[in-house]
Design a protein that fits this description.
Layout: H1 4-23, E1 28-29, E2 41-42, H2 46-60, H3 70-89, H4 93-110, H5 115-134, H6 141-159, H7 163-183, H8 193-212, H9 219-224, H10 226-241, H11 254-260, H12 265-288, H13 293-315
């Protein structure tokens, strides 16, 4: 039965996306100030991932060991529904953020967080929920982060004797792999808010759940998903320091600059996968040799610094020298 859960998630995601693309009628993502694509492309491909996840959730729902994750799973589906409604009819930004805060607060209260831990945790979950959406702007990027990131959580959960958390994380990774069949460059469909919002939410809340249950230290999920966390956090911080409106659409993320400097979406995706796998390996090294945490964090910070410095230097070089 263990392999049937992720296999079902993979198959359902594949079938749903195949049906949606043949049927047509998905909302279209038209090029704008944030876009890296030049032609309108269907979005809301995240519905396939959510469909695959729903099968895994129903399969595991009756198992006692999975009960702790149920509030997060249910909240993720609520956020997916809000995102679909936003795609179809348009919702005020304040209402979307209110849904994110309510979902985050409710799940963390269910995990027993109170006081400052609850406040900091809520802000972290809301930030992760939205930054995942910010980073969903290039073919294959968010789907690859989901496959590698949740795959790493699954391996760590198996290692930490949390089999149901491992099965559900594996199912998310499997559904993301099926989605990549349609999203790997050149993309036939984008994930959209219906996928990126709940995936970011689950990356944060399942990471906190594993920490609370002693499956991994809190640094582990932070390192695993750091390719998205660091890019979005550094970019938005720099925009804020320059006095720019951080909520406006833009193309100043480092992954966006790589494409604007001439790399193809395929080249960016493959390079990002290497970085994602490297940071996941670093996170597992943290589990194996926790006494070297400081040195691992120095290596982690140095790696990102070198990558960002290299991109910045090319970005500010006169265009006739590129």
């Amino acid at each position: 039965m263990n392999w049937l859960v992720p296999f079902s998630a993979f198959a359902i995601c594949w079938l749903v996306l195949t049906w949606l693309l043949r049927r047509g009628g998905l909302p279209m993502d038209h090029p704008n100030e944030r876009s890296l694509h030049a032609t309108p492309t269907p979005r809301s491909g995240g519905l396939g991932i959510m469909a695959g996840m729903s099968v895994a959730a129903v399969w595991l729902a009756g198992i006692d060991l999975f009960q702790a994750a149920l509030p997060m799973v249910l909240a993720a589906f609520v956020l997916a529904a809000v995102s679909v409604l936003d795609d179809v009819r348009g919702l005020p930004v304040a209402l979307r953020f209110l849904a994110h805060f309510v979902a985050a607060t409710a799940c963390l209260l269910a995990l027993g967080l109170t006081g400052w831990a609850l406040l900091v945790g809520t802000l972290a979950v809301v930030w992760m929920t939205n930054l995942y959406n910010f980073m969903d702007g290039a073919d294959g990027l968010a789907g690859g982060m989901a496959a590698i990131g949740f795959g790493a959580l699954a391996l760590a959960a198996w290692r930490g004797d949390a089999p149901e958390l491992a099965r559900f994380s594996t199912a998310i990774a499997a559904a993301a792999l099926a989605f990549l069949r349609f999203n790997f460059p050149p993309a036939r469909v984008f994930m959209g808010d219906s996928g990126s919002i709940p995936l970011g939410f689950l990356a944060a809340t399942l990471g906190i759940l594993g920490w609370r249950q002693g499956v991994w230290p809190w640094l582990f999920p932070l390192l695993v998903f750091s390719p998205f966390i660091v890019d979005a956090s550094v970019t938005l911080s720099r925009r804020g320091l320059r006095g720019e409106k951080i909520w406006q659409a833009h193309r100043s993320h480092y992954y966006q600059r790589v494409v604007l400097l001439g790399a193809s979406h395929r080249q960016l995706a493959l390079a990002a996968y290497v970085l994602m796998l490297a940071t996941a390996a670093l996170a597992f090294t943290l589990l194996l040799v926790p006494q070297h945490t400081v040195w691992l964090l120095i290596l982690w910070a140095a790696t990102y610094s070198l990558i960002f410095i290299a991109i910045d230097r090319r970005w500010h070089r006169p265009r006739n020298e590129l």
